UniProtKB/TrEMBL annotation:
GO-annotated biological processes: cobalamin biosynthetic process; methylation
Family: Belongs to the precorrin methyltransferase family.
NCBIfam families, alphabetized: cobI_cbiL
GO molecular function: precorrin-2 C20-methyltransferase activity
Keyword Cell inner membrane appears in the UniProt entry: no
Pathway given in the UniProt record: Cofactor biosynthesis; adenosylcobalamin biosynthesis
Stated name of the protein: Precorrin-2/cobalt-factor-2 C20-methyltransferase
CDD domains from the UniProt entry: Precorrin_2_C20_MT
Length: 236
């Protein structure tokens, strides 16, 4: 395979929160793959990366549907894989954009596995995660000393979630836009709601920060919302 496939983390939202390595690579990329979840959805990762792209960079917005239909999923993945392999066979430098870091809850991970079977030249460029950016924006230390920090998708099985909350000093809860009242109630039962903050769309123009998550009616979680919580105050 003559070309090279790059997985590039573009950070949480602010185009300036991208690594020098990623910015420099994007200037030399031939084709940018901008994943989106549906035909009408815009690519947030592409919006972040645009200031770092040449005006003549080819852009392909490929759809990676978020559905439960395994046949539809497999068909979409295979078609996208074929498109990328065709570009690599032409010797193209292809970048797959991803929000945050490519190795954390990312669509890129699945494509990485598929392309690895074809002995593709691949490089992964790390990015700033949403929860690290959120902690900085909110002035909320993630962990110190011997604190146990746990990263949890709030969509996981409730028993697993309850166990993780019970044994953790501090938590990062991602994907909190569903069943938020139920989630807050569970956090309250584990002593994790008093010292907590929810950051939505960190680094975007419409970013919001909520320091009192117990006021559930005031929370307006969206897909890009993250809750940071700890069982004890920071002492700040």
């Amino acid at each position: 395979m003559k070309g090279t496939f790059y997985g590039i983390g573009v950070g949480p939202g602010d185009p300036e929160l991208i690594t020098l390595k990623a910015a420099n690579l994007l200037k030399d990329i031939d084709v940018v793959i901008a994943p989106r979840t549906g035909n009408k959805a815009n690519s947030t990762a592409l919006h972040i990366a645009r200031p770092h792209l040449r005006h003549d960079t080819e852009i392909l917005e490929l759809t990676f549907p978020m559905v439960d239909d395994s046949d539809e999923l497999n068909s979409a993945w295979e078609n996208n894989k074929k498109t990328i392999l065709s570009l690599l066979k032409q010797g193209k430098r292809v970048a797959f954009l991803t929000l945050g870091d490519p190795m954390l809850y990312s669509t890129y991970i699945y494509m990485l596995r598929l392309l690895a079977k074809h002995r593709v030249n691949m490089q992964t460029i790390p990015g700033i995660t949403s929860f690290c950016a959120a902690a900085s924006r909110a002035g909320f230390p993630l962990a110190e000393g011997d604190d146990i920090l746990t990263i949890i998708p709030a969509t996981c099985d409730r028993d697993k979630l309850s166990q993780a909350l019970a044994v953790s000093d501090n938590v990062v809860l991602m994907k909190v836009s569903r069943n938020t009242p139920e989630l807050i109630k569970l956090m309250q039962s584990k002593g994790l709601s008093e010292h907590a903050v929810m950051v939505s769309k960190c680094g975007h123009p419409d970013e919001s920060i909520h320091y009192n998550i117990n006021e559930v009616s005031d929370l307006k979680p969206v897909y890009l919302s993250t809750i940071l919580a700890r069982k004890h105050p920071t002492g700040m």
